[in-house]
Amino acid sequence: MNAWRTLLALIVASACNSGCGSPSTTPNGTAAAQSAAATNSETRTMTPIDAAPKVTEEALQAVEKKYSCRLPDDYRRFLLQSNGGFPSPDCVVFTEADLKTASDVFCFFAIGDERSWASLEWHCDTFSGRLPKGTLPIARDSCGNLWLLSVGSTSPGAVFFWDHGSYETFDETDLAQWPRVATNFHAFRESLIPYDANATNKAVLSRYALVKQATEGMAKKDDGFSTRANPEYAWHCDCTDGGDVRMQFVAYEVHAAVTHTDGYSRLRALKGLIKQGPPRLPK
């Protein structure tokens, strides 16, 4: 087993200055729309989660009963067919603080899976009290942030992005505080495109860009390295007061379960995009 696997955190040696680059001159949405059009003509793939259980209608009803919700039909069909998985392409371009940014869908969660990184139920229970009422965590990005599906009366069926490392300057259980990225689950899946740096604002590197740089840096040290091959780990962003970013590859369960403010929130605050405030500390 490679030596890096025995470490809780692996730090990419070269720090990335996330203030580099000028704002994108590409009109908002143009590059993303072109990429989406190209993707629609290609074959989308969903790599199954190894050893994930097959879902039955009874299992879905049990989840609905436990979390007092009704699963939208498009999401229900997905679970019955796939029960989670790793999508390709995996990039989501969305608007956050009035800027185009991007993150990935690392994996869609499975129902009935006992592994924390893959389990919908584990995320529901672990983040209970923090997630907006009437939402289910259906997927995560490579940094441990969540994609939420609204199963309540507010924007029913829509998908939202939820940052687990935000500052304690607002109510994180208020769904209106988070970016809505798609009107329904089917549209969310259709919105996944190949990553294109020109589709986002370069004033602040996106989460996708930071993870991509960190993964490429790690792969130079270990030819067999990929984030997907190590789903029990996630990327943690550490940002200095000067705006320099280091990405750390850490145990997912620890990273996700411990409430904290990550470096990406600090980076955004340094750029004046959000208000800096006290970190969300463990209860």
Describe the structure.
The protein is α+β, with helices and mostly antiparallel strands. 26% of the residues lie in helices and 20% in strands. The chain contains eight helices and 13 strands. The protein has helices at 30-40, 57-66, 73-81, 120-126, 185-191, 207-221, 252-257, 263-270, and strands at 9-11, 16-17, 45-47, 86-88, 91-96, 99-104, 107-108, 135-140, 146-150, 159-162, 180-182, 233-239, 244-251. It has a five-stranded antiparallel sheet with strand order 7-8-9-10-11. Strand 12 and strand 13 (244-251) form a beta hairpin.
What's this model, at a glance?
The protein has eight helices and 13 strands. Strands 7-8-9-10-11 form a five-stranded antiparallel beta sheet. Strands 1, 2, 12 and 13 form a four-stranded antiparallel beta sheet that branches. It has a two-stranded antiparallel sheet with strand order 3-4. The chain is an alpha+beta fold.
Search tags:
283 residues; alpha+beta; 4-stranded antiparallel sheet; 8 helices; 13 strands; 20% strand; disordered N terminus
Describe the SSE topology.
Elements (H helix, E strand, L loop, with lengths): L8 E3 L4 E2 L12 H11 L4 E3 L9 H10 L6 H9 L4 E3 L2 E6 L2 E6 L2 E2 L11 H7 L8 E6 L5 E5 L8 E4 L17 E3 L2 H7 L15 H15 L11 E7 L4 E8 H6 L5 H8 L13
Antiparallel strand pairs: 1-13, 2-13, 3-4, 5-6, 7-8, 8-9, 9-10, 10-11, 12-13
